[in-house]
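Quick one - inputs below.
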Amino acid sequence: EDQVTQSPEALRLQEGESSSLNCSYTVSGLRGLFWYRQDPGKGPEFLFTLYSAGEEKEKERLKATLTKKESFLHITAPKPEDSATYLCAVQGRYSSASKIIFGSGTRLSIRP
Amino acid sequence: DGGITQSPKYLFRKEGQNVTLSCEQNLNHDAMYWYRQDPGQGLRLIYYSQIVNDFQKGDIAEGYSVSREKKESFPLTVTSAQKNPTAFYLCASSFRDGYNEQFFGPGTRLTVL
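Output:
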């Protein structure tokens, strides 16, 4: 059964303190791994899609990496506006988009 | 600007009432989806539609119904048969089912009084 586990559940950092969020997945052939950002009371905002192990993508202070078993979202020198819940999701090679599995998210808080 | 809109933002339902949540997209996407989000849980798929006039049950379809009469619109009805409807409801769309990224609307918060 396809599974996604995100850790930690919550992370509090000081402004400028870099860290990483983890997304471990089990899927029968990865078609795509997705990262989203969700602010309280709002819909998820798409960040990245990663397709194969070794791939990396960057956007401002965020960099997503992918291995065969997990993905990391690295946050470099975060600012308070980076505070949000970050969601990871996976789609198996033999699944349709309707079968995307979402993790429960990591709640990131950046203190000024 | 292209995007997905949901209305209303907040909705209150009395016991025994049916309520309908609106979802509209102007991204020219074929596929549309409804998810339910509860605290501490991942998004759970309620219904999805790959094309106009066709839709399929997701993992938690009981107590919900949908229609897809237009490409742009995918309304969700929460019926009185749904015993625990208080949640945050998210509509999403993708270019075509099986084409990766889903894009989400702003959500509707439904509360049962």
